[in-house]
Protein backbone atom coordinates (compact mmCIF):
# COMPACT_ATOMS: atom_id res chain seq x y z
CA UNK A 1 0.00 0.00 0.00
CA UNK A 2 1.22 3.48 -0.82
CA UNK A 3 2.54 5.13 2.43
CA UNK A 4 0.53 8.27 1.80
CA UNK A 5 -2.64 6.23 1.36
CA UNK A 6 -1.81 4.22 4.49
CA UNK A 7 -1.43 7.30 6.65
CA UNK A 8 -4.55 8.85 5.15
CA UNK A 9 -6.52 5.71 6.03
CA UNK A 10 -4.96 5.70 9.51
CA UNK A 11 -6.03 9.31 10.06
CA UNK A 12 -9.56 8.40 9.03
CA UNK A 13 -9.73 5.34 11.29
CA UNK A 14 -8.16 6.84 14.41
CA UNK A 15 -11.21 8.96 15.36
CA UNK A 16 -13.43 5.89 14.92
CA UNK A 17 -11.05 3.84 17.08
CA UNK A 18 -11.08 6.36 19.92
CA UNK A 19 -14.84 6.77 19.62
CA UNK A 20 -15.40 3.03 19.92
CA UNK A 21 -12.87 2.80 22.76
CA UNK A 22 -14.63 5.67 24.56
CA UNK A 23 -18.01 4.01 24.13
CA UNK A 24 -16.78 0.62 25.32
CA UNK A 25 -15.26 2.21 28.42
CA UNK A 26 -18.61 3.74 29.34
CA UNK A 27 -20.10 0.35 30.27
CA UNK A 28 -23.39 0.96 28.50
CA UNK A 29 -26.17 -1.49 29.37
CA UNK A 30 -26.55 -4.49 27.06
CA UNK A 31 -29.09 -4.48 24.26
CA UNK A 32 -29.53 -2.99 20.80
CA UNK A 33 -30.58 0.46 19.58
CA UNK A 34 -31.92 -1.01 16.35
CA UNK A 35 -32.58 1.11 13.27
CA UNK A 36 -32.03 4.91 13.42
CA UNK A 37 -35.08 6.87 14.68
CA UNK A 38 -37.40 3.84 14.48
CA UNK A 39 -35.39 1.58 16.80
CA UNK A 40 -37.76 -0.83 18.57
CA UNK A 41 -40.76 1.57 18.43
CA UNK A 42 -42.79 -0.36 15.85
CA UNK A 43 -42.11 -3.70 17.54
CA UNK A 44 -43.05 -2.29 20.96
CA UNK A 45 -46.24 -0.60 19.70
CA UNK A 46 -47.26 -3.83 17.96
CA UNK A 47 -46.80 -5.73 21.23
CA UNK A 48 -48.90 -3.09 23.01
CA UNK A 49 -51.75 -3.50 20.54
CA UNK A 50 -51.53 -7.29 20.78
CA UNK A 51 -51.52 -7.05 24.60
CA UNK A 52 -48.17 -8.85 24.69
CA UNK A 53 -46.05 -5.89 25.85
CA UNK A 54 -45.31 -7.48 29.23
CA UNK A 55 -43.98 -10.60 27.45
CA UNK A 56 -42.04 -8.30 25.08
CA UNK A 57 -40.25 -6.81 28.08
CA UNK A 58 -39.81 -10.14 29.88
CA UNK A 59 -38.15 -11.67 26.81
CA UNK A 60 -35.54 -8.90 26.82
CA UNK A 61 -35.07 -9.12 30.59
CA UNK A 62 -34.32 -12.84 30.21
CA UNK A 63 -31.85 -12.00 27.44
CA UNK A 64 -30.14 -8.91 28.89
CA UNK A 65 -31.10 -8.71 32.58
CA UNK A 66 -33.10 -6.05 34.47
CA UNK A 67 -31.18 -3.17 32.84
CA UNK A 68 -30.86 -2.90 29.06
CA UNK A 69 -30.87 -0.42 26.22
CA UNK A 70 -33.08 0.06 23.17
CA UNK A 71 -34.41 2.94 21.07
CA UNK A 72 -37.99 4.12 21.56
CA UNK A 73 -39.79 6.95 19.77
CA UNK A 74 -36.63 8.41 18.30
CA UNK A 75 -34.40 8.34 21.43
CA UNK A 76 -31.85 5.91 22.90
CA UNK A 77 -33.55 4.45 25.96
CA UNK A 78 -32.56 2.43 29.03
CA UNK A 79 -35.14 0.16 30.63
CA UNK A 80 -34.97 -0.29 34.41
CA UNK A 81 -37.04 -2.73 36.43
CA UNK A 82 -37.64 -3.61 40.06
CA UNK A 83 -38.74 -1.95 43.29
CA UNK A 84 -35.29 -0.41 43.84
CA UNK A 85 -35.37 1.01 40.32
CA UNK A 86 -38.82 2.54 40.98
CA UNK A 87 -37.53 4.19 44.13
CA UNK A 88 -34.44 5.48 42.34
CA UNK A 89 -36.52 6.97 39.52
CA UNK A 90 -39.14 8.62 41.75
CA UNK A 91 -36.60 10.04 44.22
CA UNK A 92 -33.67 10.81 41.91
CA UNK A 93 -32.13 14.29 42.03
CA UNK A 94 -33.71 16.46 39.34
CA UNK A 95 -30.22 17.45 38.20
CA UNK A 96 -29.84 13.86 36.92
CA UNK A 97 -33.30 12.69 35.85
CA UNK A 98 -36.24 14.87 34.89
CA UNK A 99 -39.71 14.22 33.65
CA UNK A 100 -39.91 13.87 29.92
CA UNK A 101 -42.51 12.08 27.94
CA UNK A 102 -41.81 10.91 24.38
CA UNK A 103 -41.64 13.66 21.77
CA UNK A 104 -45.12 12.74 20.54
CA UNK A 105 -46.61 13.39 24.00
CA UNK A 106 -44.66 16.64 24.49
CA UNK A 107 -45.74 18.01 21.13
CA UNK A 108 -49.38 17.18 21.91
CA UNK A 109 -49.59 18.24 25.57
CA UNK A 110 -47.16 21.18 25.54
CA UNK A 111 -43.83 21.77 27.27
CA UNK A 112 -45.25 23.39 30.42
CA UNK A 113 -47.40 20.53 31.71
CA UNK A 114 -46.56 18.93 35.05
CA UNK A 115 -45.25 15.74 33.41
CA UNK A 116 -42.44 17.70 31.75
CA UNK A 117 -41.29 19.88 34.65
CA UNK A 118 -38.79 19.29 37.44
CA UNK A 119 -37.32 20.99 40.48
CA UNK A 120 -38.91 24.28 41.58
CA UNK A 121 -40.92 24.52 38.36
CA UNK A 122 -42.50 21.13 39.05
CA UNK A 123 -43.12 22.08 42.68
CA UNK A 124 -44.76 25.32 41.60
CA UNK A 125 -47.16 23.75 39.09
CA UNK A 126 -47.83 20.73 41.31
CA UNK A 127 -48.67 23.09 44.17
CA UNK A 128 -51.17 24.88 41.95
CA UNK A 129 -52.84 21.64 40.90
CA UNK A 130 -52.86 20.17 44.40
CA UNK A 131 -54.58 23.33 45.66
CA UNK A 132 -57.56 22.18 43.59
CA UNK A 133 -57.22 18.38 43.91
CA UNK A 134 -56.41 17.99 47.63
CA UNK A 135 -58.91 16.01 49.77
CA UNK A 136 -60.22 18.98 51.77
CA UNK A 137 -61.22 20.68 48.52
CA UNK A 138 -62.54 17.54 46.83
CA UNK A 139 -64.93 17.01 49.76
CA UNK A 140 -66.95 19.84 48.26
CA UNK A 141 -67.29 17.96 44.96
CA UNK A 142 -68.68 14.65 46.23
CA UNK A 143 -72.29 15.77 45.82
CA UNK A 144 -71.64 17.35 42.41
CA UNK A 145 -69.92 14.20 41.21
CA UNK A 146 -72.73 12.04 42.64
CA UNK A 147 -75.33 14.12 40.78
CA UNK A 148 -73.57 13.71 37.45
CA UNK A 149 -73.05 9.97 37.88
CA UNK A 150 -76.73 9.43 38.75
CA UNK A 151 -77.74 11.47 35.71
CA UNK A 152 -75.40 9.43 33.52
CA UNK A 153 -77.02 6.14 34.51
CA UNK A 154 -80.52 7.59 34.01
CA UNK A 155 -79.64 8.85 30.51
CA UNK A 156 -77.49 6.04 29.16
CA UNK A 157 -78.32 2.84 31.10
CA UNK A 158 -81.92 2.82 32.30
CA UNK A 159 -84.32 1.20 29.87
CA UNK A 160 -81.51 -0.54 27.95
CA UNK A 161 -80.98 -4.28 27.59
CA UNK A 162 -77.44 -4.04 26.22
CA UNK A 163 -74.78 -1.35 26.53
CA UNK A 164 -71.11 -0.99 25.58
CA UNK A 165 -69.43 -0.35 28.91
CA UNK A 166 -66.17 1.25 27.77
CA UNK A 167 -67.64 4.01 25.56
CA UNK A 168 -70.16 4.82 28.30
CA UNK A 169 -67.45 4.99 30.95
CA UNK A 170 -65.51 7.33 28.66
CA UNK A 171 -68.61 9.53 28.31
CA UNK A 172 -69.08 9.53 32.08
CA UNK A 173 -65.49 10.38 32.97
CA UNK A 174 -65.21 12.99 30.22
CA UNK A 175 -68.39 14.72 31.39
CA UNK A 176 -67.11 14.84 34.96
CA UNK A 177 -63.66 16.03 33.88
CA UNK A 178 -65.07 18.68 31.53
CA UNK A 179 -67.30 19.95 34.32
CA UNK A 180 -64.78 20.04 37.18
CA UNK A 181 -61.59 20.75 35.21
CA UNK A 182 -62.59 23.17 32.45
CA UNK A 183 -66.12 24.11 33.57
CA UNK A 184 -68.10 22.93 30.52
CA UNK A 185 -71.32 21.25 31.61
CA UNK A 186 -72.68 20.10 28.26
CA UNK A 187 -73.80 21.18 24.83
CA UNK A 188 -72.16 21.35 21.42
CA UNK A 189 -68.78 22.55 22.72
CA UNK A 190 -68.43 19.54 24.99
CA UNK A 191 -69.45 17.18 22.17
CA UNK A 192 -66.74 18.68 19.96
CA UNK A 193 -64.18 18.29 22.74
CA UNK A 194 -65.08 14.61 23.23
CA UNK A 195 -64.25 13.84 19.60
CA UNK A 196 -61.09 15.94 19.64
CA UNK A 197 -59.74 14.30 22.80
CA UNK A 198 -60.37 10.82 21.41
CA UNK A 199 -58.44 11.78 18.27
CA UNK A 200 -55.66 13.33 20.35
CA UNK A 201 -55.22 10.27 22.59
CA UNK A 202 -54.90 7.85 19.65
CA UNK A 203 -51.68 9.54 18.51
CA UNK A 204 -50.27 10.44 21.91
CA UNK A 205 -47.88 7.48 21.88
CA UNK A 206 -46.67 7.15 18.31
CA UNK A 207 -43.63 7.59 16.11
CA UNK A 208 -43.34 11.42 15.95
CA UNK A 209 -43.21 11.77 12.18
CA UNK A 210 -45.62 14.49 11.12
CA UNK A 211 -46.75 13.17 7.75
CA UNK A 212 -50.34 13.79 6.60
CA UNK A 213 -52.86 11.10 7.56
CA UNK A 214 -50.62 9.60 10.27
CA UNK A 215 -51.94 9.19 13.81
CA UNK A 216 -49.41 11.71 15.03
CA UNK A 217 -50.49 14.33 12.49
CA UNK A 218 -54.19 13.91 13.31
CA UNK A 219 -53.39 14.07 17.04
CA UNK A 220 -51.45 17.33 16.59
CA UNK A 221 -54.37 18.85 14.71
CA UNK A 222 -56.75 17.86 17.50
CA UNK A 223 -54.36 19.29 20.11
CA UNK A 224 -54.26 22.67 18.35
CA UNK A 225 -58.07 22.84 18.20
CA UNK A 226 -58.45 21.85 21.87
CA UNK A 227 -55.87 24.45 22.88
CA UNK A 228 -57.80 27.17 21.03
CA UNK A 229 -61.01 26.22 22.87
CA UNK A 230 -59.28 26.21 26.26
CA UNK A 231 -57.53 29.53 25.62
CA UNK A 232 -60.93 31.04 24.77
CA UNK A 233 -62.27 29.66 28.07
CA UNK A 234 -59.33 31.16 29.97
CA UNK A 235 -59.99 34.59 28.46
CA UNK A 236 -63.71 34.29 29.25
CA UNK A 237 -63.04 33.31 32.88
CA UNK A 238 -60.52 36.11 33.36
CA UNK A 239 -63.01 38.67 32.05
CA UNK A 240 -65.76 37.22 34.26
CA UNK A 241 -63.52 37.37 37.34
CA UNK A 242 -62.97 41.08 36.79
CA UNK A 243 -66.71 41.58 36.87
CA UNK A 244 -67.45 39.22 39.76
CA UNK A 245 -64.70 37.21 41.50
CA UNK A 246 -65.52 33.49 41.55
CA UNK A 247 -64.79 30.94 44.21
CA UNK A 248 -61.34 29.45 43.47
CA UNK A 249 -62.78 25.90 43.60
CA UNK A 250 -65.43 26.43 40.91
CA UNK A 251 -63.36 24.50 38.34
CA UNK A 252 -59.66 23.96 37.72
CA UNK A 253 -59.23 26.78 35.19
CA UNK A 254 -61.02 29.28 37.43
CA UNK A 255 -59.05 28.03 40.41
CA UNK A 256 -55.70 28.43 38.66
CA UNK A 257 -56.64 31.92 37.48
CA UNK A 258 -57.49 32.81 41.08
CA UNK A 259 -54.04 31.97 42.45
CA UNK A 260 -51.99 34.79 43.85
CA UNK A 261 -48.23 35.03 44.28
CA UNK A 262 -47.62 33.26 47.58
CA UNK A 263 -44.27 31.67 48.44
CA UNK A 264 -43.19 29.58 45.43
CA UNK A 265 -46.74 29.42 44.06
CA UNK A 266 -46.42 32.08 41.39
CA UNK A 267 -49.60 32.42 39.36
CA UNK A 268 -49.51 30.30 36.22
CA UNK A 269 -49.40 31.72 32.70
CA UNK A 270 -52.24 31.09 30.25
CA UNK A 271 -50.03 28.61 28.38
CA UNK A 272 -49.28 26.69 31.59
CA UNK A 273 -52.97 26.54 32.49
CA UNK A 274 -53.84 25.26 28.99
CA UNK A 275 -51.03 22.66 28.97
CA UNK A 276 -52.00 21.30 32.38
CA UNK A 277 -55.74 21.33 31.71
CA UNK A 278 -55.14 19.21 28.58
CA UNK A 279 -52.78 16.86 30.44
CA UNK A 280 -55.17 16.33 33.37
CA UNK A 281 -58.12 15.83 31.04
CA UNK A 282 -56.19 13.12 29.17
CA UNK A 283 -54.91 11.44 32.35
CA UNK A 284 -58.21 11.55 34.24
CA UNK A 285 -60.48 10.74 31.32
CA UNK A 286 -58.69 7.68 30.02
CA UNK A 287 -57.22 6.16 33.17
CA UNK A 288 -60.42 6.29 35.24
CA UNK A 289 -62.62 5.08 32.36
CA UNK A 290 -60.23 2.15 31.82
CA UNK A 291 -60.29 1.26 35.53
CA UNK A 292 -64.11 1.38 35.64
CA UNK A 293 -64.38 -0.78 32.51
CA UNK A 294 -61.96 -3.34 33.94
CA UNK A 295 -63.99 -3.40 37.17
CA UNK A 296 -67.19 -4.05 35.20
CA UNK A 297 -65.53 -7.00 33.46
CA UNK A 298 -64.10 -8.30 36.72
CA UNK A 299 -67.42 -8.14 38.60
CA UNK A 300 -69.12 -10.02 35.76
CA UNK A 301 -66.53 -12.81 35.96
CA UNK A 302 -65.77 -13.08 39.69
CA UNK A 303 -68.90 -13.68 41.76
CA UNK A 304 -67.02 -13.77 45.08
CA UNK A 305 -65.58 -10.29 44.51
CA UNK A 306 -68.94 -9.05 43.24
CA UNK A 307 -70.68 -10.36 46.39
CA UNK A 308 -68.15 -8.58 48.63
CA UNK A 309 -68.60 -5.26 46.85
CA UNK A 310 -72.40 -5.61 46.63
CA UNK A 311 -72.66 -6.26 50.36
CA UNK A 312 -70.51 -3.22 51.19
CA UNK A 313 -72.39 -0.92 48.81
CA UNK A 314 -75.82 -2.15 49.94
CA UNK A 315 -74.90 -1.34 53.54
CA UNK A 316 -73.96 2.19 52.51
CA UNK A 317 -77.21 2.54 50.53
CA UNK A 318 -79.32 1.32 53.46
CA UNK A 319 -77.85 4.02 55.68
CA UNK A 320 -79.07 6.76 53.33
CA UNK A 321 -82.52 8.28 53.03
CA UNK A 322 -84.24 7.98 49.65
CA UNK A 323 -82.55 10.29 47.16
CA UNK A 324 -79.88 11.39 49.68
CA UNK A 325 -76.49 12.04 48.14
CA UNK A 326 -73.29 10.30 49.15
CA UNK A 327 -70.83 12.05 51.44
CA UNK A 328 -67.08 11.91 51.98
CA UNK A 329 -67.69 9.74 55.07
CA UNK A 330 -69.73 7.28 53.01
CA UNK A 331 -66.79 6.86 50.63
CA UNK A 332 -64.48 6.20 53.58
CA UNK A 333 -66.62 3.13 54.39
CA UNK A 334 -65.99 1.59 50.95
CA UNK A 335 -62.70 0.00 51.94
CA UNK A 336 -63.18 -3.38 50.25
CA UNK A 337 -64.34 -1.74 47.01
CA UNK A 338 -61.20 0.38 46.85
CA UNK A 339 -58.98 -2.64 47.59
CA UNK A 340 -60.58 -4.34 44.60
CA UNK A 341 -59.91 -1.25 42.48
CA UNK A 342 -56.25 -1.19 43.59
CA UNK A 343 -55.89 -4.88 42.74
CA UNK A 344 -57.36 -4.13 39.32
CA UNK A 345 -54.74 -1.40 38.87
CA UNK A 346 -52.04 -3.82 39.98
CA UNK A 347 -53.07 -6.48 37.49
CA UNK A 348 -53.71 -4.06 34.61
CA UNK A 349 -52.18 -0.59 35.10
CA UNK A 350 -53.81 1.75 32.53
CA UNK A 351 -50.48 3.48 31.79
CA UNK A 352 -48.05 0.78 30.72
CA UNK A 353 -44.73 2.63 30.96
CA UNK A 354 -43.32 6.08 31.74
CA UNK A 355 -40.22 8.06 30.83
CA UNK A 356 -37.51 10.32 32.29
CA UNK A 357 -34.81 12.33 30.49
CA UNK A 358 -31.15 11.99 31.52
CA UNK A 359 -29.57 15.43 32.12
CA UNK A 360 -26.06 14.19 32.85
CA UNK A 361 -24.17 10.90 32.82
CA UNK A 362 -24.88 8.78 35.88
CA UNK A 363 -24.00 5.29 37.01
CA UNK A 364 -26.61 2.74 38.01
CA UNK A 365 -25.85 -0.87 38.99
CA UNK A 366 -22.46 -0.74 37.29
CA UNK A 367 -23.68 0.78 34.02
CA UNK A 368 -23.30 4.35 32.80
CA UNK A 369 -26.48 5.96 31.46
CA UNK A 370 -25.43 8.79 29.10
CA UNK A 371 -26.68 12.35 29.07
CA UNK A 372 -29.44 12.93 26.52
CA UNK A 373 -30.83 9.38 26.71
CA UNK A 374 -34.16 8.55 28.28
CA UNK A 375 -35.05 6.08 31.02
CA UNK A 376 -38.25 4.05 30.97
CA UNK A 377 -39.86 1.59 33.36
CA UNK A 378 -43.10 -0.42 33.43
CA UNK A 379 -45.42 -0.78 36.41
CA UNK A 380 -46.16 -4.44 35.64
CA UNK A 381 -42.57 -5.43 36.44
CA UNK A 382 -43.09 -4.80 40.17
CA UNK A 383 -46.85 -5.40 40.19
CA UNK A 384 -46.20 -9.01 39.13
CA UNK A 385 -43.21 -9.55 41.42
CA UNK A 386 -44.03 -12.48 43.73
CA UNK A 387 -41.65 -11.17 46.39
CA UNK A 388 -43.91 -8.10 46.69
CA UNK A 389 -47.31 -9.62 45.87
CA UNK A 390 -47.57 -13.35 46.70
CA UNK A 391 -49.16 -15.39 43.90
CA UNK A 392 -49.15 -12.28 41.67
CA UNK A 393 -51.12 -13.77 38.76
CA UNK A 394 -54.12 -14.40 41.05
CA UNK A 395 -56.61 -11.57 41.56
CA UNK A 396 -56.64 -11.06 45.33
CA UNK A 397 -57.83 -7.81 46.99
CA UNK A 398 -56.18 -9.04 50.20
CA UNK A 399 -52.89 -7.89 48.68
CA UNK A 400 -53.98 -4.45 49.92
CA UNK A 401 -55.45 -5.43 53.27
CA UNK A 402 -52.18 -4.36 54.89
CA UNK A 403 -49.78 -1.62 53.95
CA UNK A 404 -47.76 -2.61 50.90
CA UNK A 405 -44.01 -1.97 50.50
CA UNK A 406 -43.20 1.50 49.12
CA UNK A 407 -42.64 1.81 45.36
CA UNK A 408 -44.24 -1.58 44.69
CA UNK A 409 -47.59 -0.32 43.35
CA UNK A 410 -46.80 2.52 40.96
CA UNK A 411 -50.00 2.80 38.92
CA UNK A 412 -50.28 6.36 40.32
CA UNK A 413 -46.54 7.00 40.52
CA UNK A 414 -44.65 7.06 43.78
CA UNK A 415 -43.22 9.27 46.52
CA UNK A 416 -43.37 12.99 45.84
CA UNK A 417 -44.24 12.13 42.23
CA UNK A 418 -47.51 10.40 43.06
CA UNK A 419 -50.34 11.57 40.80
CA UNK A 420 -52.03 14.68 42.28
CA UNK A 421 -55.34 13.33 40.92
CA UNK A 422 -55.21 10.17 43.06
CA UNK A 423 -58.07 11.24 45.36
CA UNK A 424 -60.11 12.51 42.41
CA UNK A 425 -59.82 9.05 40.82
CA UNK A 426 -60.81 7.35 44.08
CA UNK A 427 -63.94 9.48 44.44
CA UNK A 428 -65.12 8.96 40.89
CA UNK A 429 -64.45 5.20 40.99
CA UNK A 430 -66.22 4.58 44.31
CA UNK A 431 -69.30 6.68 43.50
CA UNK A 432 -69.70 5.03 40.08
CA UNK A 433 -69.36 1.48 41.43
CA UNK A 434 -71.79 2.31 44.26
CA UNK A 435 -74.56 3.23 41.82
CA UNK A 436 -73.68 0.50 39.33
CA UNK A 437 -73.97 -2.44 41.74
CA UNK A 438 -77.04 -1.00 43.50
CA UNK A 439 -78.94 -0.27 40.29
CA UNK A 440 -78.00 -3.12 37.90
CA UNK A 441 -76.92 -6.67 37.42
CA UNK A 442 -75.01 -7.55 34.24
CA UNK A 443 -73.18 -10.22 32.28
CA UNK A 444 -70.68 -10.07 29.44
CA UNK A 445 -71.94 -10.68 25.91
CA UNK A 446 -68.52 -12.19 25.05
CA UNK A 447 -67.20 -13.73 28.30
CA UNK A 448 -63.72 -14.53 26.97
CA UNK A 449 -63.03 -11.14 25.43
CA UNK A 450 -59.66 -9.51 26.08
CA UNK A 451 -58.24 -6.07 25.41
CA UNK A 452 -55.43 -4.50 23.43
CA UNK A 453 -53.38 -1.41 24.28
CA UNK A 454 -53.69 1.59 21.99
CA UNK A 455 -51.92 2.89 24.12
CA UNK A 456 -54.50 2.46 26.90
CA UNK A 457 -56.39 -0.84 27.30
CA UNK A 458 -59.31 -0.96 24.89
CA UNK A 459 -61.90 -3.62 24.03
CA UNK A 460 -62.76 -4.34 20.40
CA UNK A 461 -66.52 -4.45 21.11
CA UNK A 462 -66.37 -1.76 23.80
CA UNK A 463 -67.06 -4.51 26.38
CA UNK A 464 -70.69 -5.12 25.51
CA UNK A 465 -72.82 -6.27 28.45
CA UNK A 466 -76.42 -7.33 29.03
CA UNK A 467 -77.95 -5.37 31.91
CA UNK A 468 -81.03 -5.74 34.11
CA UNK A 469 -82.36 -3.22 36.63
CA UNK A 470 -81.90 -4.28 40.23
CA UNK A 471 -84.64 -4.17 42.82
CA UNK A 472 -83.95 -1.08 44.95
CA UNK A 473 -82.43 -1.59 48.38
CA UNK A 474 -84.99 -1.08 51.14
CA UNK A 475 -84.33 2.07 53.15
CA UNK A 476 -84.60 2.05 56.95
Notes on the protein architecture:
The protein is an alpha+beta fold and 476 residues long. The chain is 52% helix and 11% strand. The strands form 4 sheets. A 5-stranded mixed beta sheet has the order 1-2-8-5-3. A 3-stranded antiparallel beta sheet has the order 4-12-9. It has a two-stranded antiparallel sheet with strand order 6-7. β1 (67-72) and β2 (75-80) form a beta hairpin. The longest helix is centred in the middle third of the chain and has 32 residues, at 270-301. Mean pLDDT is 85; it is low at 3-25. It is a single-pass membrane protein.
| Uncertain ranges | 3-25
Radius of gyration: 24 Å
Instruction: Give me the side-by-side strand order of the main sheet.
Output: 1-2-8-5-3
Specify the biggest β-sheet. 5 strands, mixed
* Fourth-level CATH superfamily: Cytochrome P450
Overall helicity:
40-55%
Q: What count of structural domains?
A: 1
Mean pLDDT equals: 85
Kindly, what is the distance between the CA atoms of the first and last residues, rounded to a whole number of angstroms?
102 Å
The arrangement of helices and strands along the chain is HHHEEHEHHHHEHHHHHHHHEEEEHHEEEE
User: Per CATH, which architecture?
Assistant: Orthogonal Bundle
Write down the CATH class.
Mainly Alpha
Which percent band covers the strand fraction?
Answer: 5-15%
Outline type: globular
- Write the CATH fold name: Cytochrome p450
Oligomer state of the chains in this structure: single chain
Structural class: alpha+beta
Number of helices: 18
Amino acid sequence: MDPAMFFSLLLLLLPLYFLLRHKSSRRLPPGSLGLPIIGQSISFLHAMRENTAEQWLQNRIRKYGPIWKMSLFGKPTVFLSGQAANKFIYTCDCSILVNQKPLSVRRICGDRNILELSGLEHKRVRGALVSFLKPEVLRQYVRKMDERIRKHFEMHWHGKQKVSAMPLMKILTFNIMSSLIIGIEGGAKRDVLVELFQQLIKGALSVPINFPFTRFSRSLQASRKIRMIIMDLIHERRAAQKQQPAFPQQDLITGLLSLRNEDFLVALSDEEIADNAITIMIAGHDTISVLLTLLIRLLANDQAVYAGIAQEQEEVAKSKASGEFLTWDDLARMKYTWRVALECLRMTPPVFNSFRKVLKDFEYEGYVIPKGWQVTWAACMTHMDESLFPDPTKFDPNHFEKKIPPYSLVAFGGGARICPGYEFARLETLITIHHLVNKFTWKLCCPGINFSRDPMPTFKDGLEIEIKPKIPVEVN
